Amino acid sequence: MALNDLDLTCRIGSAVLQNPVLTASGTFGYGQEYESFVNLHRLGAVVVKGISLAPRRGNPPPRVVETACGMLNAIGLENVGVERFLAEKLPYLRGMRATVIVNILGDSVEEYAALAGRLDEVAGLAAIEVNISCPNVKKGGVAFGTDPEMAAAVTQAVKGATRLPVIVKLSPNVTDVALMARAVEDAGADAVSLINTLLGMAIDSRTRRPRLANVVGGLSGPAIKPIALRMVWQVAKAVKIPVIGIGGIATAEDALEFLIAGASAIEVGTANFVNPRACEEILAGIGAYLEANKMTSLRELVGSLAI
Amino acid sequence: MPPYQLKAQIIRAETLAPDLYRLTFLAPDLAAEAKPGQFVMLRVGEGADPLLRRPFSIHQVTASGWVQVLIKVVGKGTRLLATLALGQTVDVVGPLGNRFSLHTSHHICLVGGGVGIAPLYFLARELQRSNPPAAVVPLLGARTAAELRPLADDFVALGLTPRLATDDGTLGHHGLVIAHLSELMATPAPWIVYCCGPYPMMRAVAKICREQGWACQVSLETMMACGLAACLGCAVPAADLAGPYKHVCKDGPVFGAEEVAWL
After folding, report:
1. Which chain B residue has the Cα nearest residue A249?
2. What value of ipTM does the predicted structure carry?
3. Which of A52, A115, B64, B170 has the fewest beta carbons closer than 10 A?
4. Which domains does chain B have, with CATH numbers?
């Protein structure tokens, strides 16, 4: 069986992605940064760096620090703002025939709605991913992502402002992630993606100072994979909408675990920093696994966990 | 299309001094593209710990496709890279970042501290090979003679006369290499200073250059996760503190000293 006989498609609301391998927002720039390494049009989607209404300069350095099997970041949502994204970044992605999902973030329900409304006017986007979970900015971010009512309010506002499928990206920094997932599902979300980074910190014992200027930051990388996998499994059982798995995925084997746990698609994050070809290697590995197990469709694998 | 990623065969692994290593690997496409000031990201092993690649200035390249970096051991990752042996491979991404811009009509001073000497040697080689400027004066410093001598000897082999300084006084001036910079002040010439080394050294050099009205380019080092302008982890404050941050991997690593804030 040729690889192209495999049905790798996955559905996110009204959008059909050609395969389940997406890039995680904030780890793949606006796509062009990886043009030497990845055929962007072959990815399920490029999820771009989170976009706000106005440009943001981000946090002071140091912004990143390596930890055991992972890294902490406190970038602070530095981005070019929606208008420069549309004028300077999106045309390149369109030219490369990439499937584009725009990650959005805001300080208020109104800002999320305004962003969604602005993107609704734009041709050629596959979906919007709503970042309600970034832990780095004092205002907004974390409050939306940890309060089910606030998360639902943002979801509803975004859904009301756009016809595009809406993915809500969930924070792991909550007691019951399934509760959050159900809250945004009830508010109209077309899918959920999880997990965003886990709040962490690192200290230099010589200077007794935090290693990040922001003091705390988001933990990502292989270190968080077991937690992410557990949360994806819990959420997949709790909701009917598609779940996109994120968290420490570096190899096809990692991706398969998330798909088996119930994720319809996955996002590759920190692994892009280490291996810029990670996304395409993972895609090839998923295809090879389906073939080896005589499956013709990705859907046969999703949620096939045997307990 | 550069940057390239490849598993490069190690063709030379040298111990220059305790904790100072020189690694040479075969990467012809990368070598052909590389310019003085650019850097590479080396992966540390295949596993997840240490996770991230480490950035290294390119020390020299050859027409035969060799690429060389200097590795100062500062932790687990650099220790593992330093112990790579002949015949093993290293996963490399590069060349990355911008380059020193050349002003060969000026008298040129290269100020390097420790492993920061690495990109200045690449620059010196290029300066000497093409239309050499009237003066190329390397000022090189390190902690000890053991660290400094092998690096300084390479500049001598180019026909240059480096002025040296060590922290312990075992070679050259006993103290900071910037002491030599004041000697240049007596020379009435339009100097351009290229500088790479510890932050306090670069800050001091930038200050002297500003006072003297000399052009100065610095090569900055920061924590860096990707080297590809994706993570935005390598931010440094611009001279305009209210403006956007500069990113070492994309806007740099070479900056005009007046472009960045010296805090």
Report:
1. B48
2. 0.95
3. B64
4. 4-96 (2.40.30.10), 107-221 (3.40.50.80)
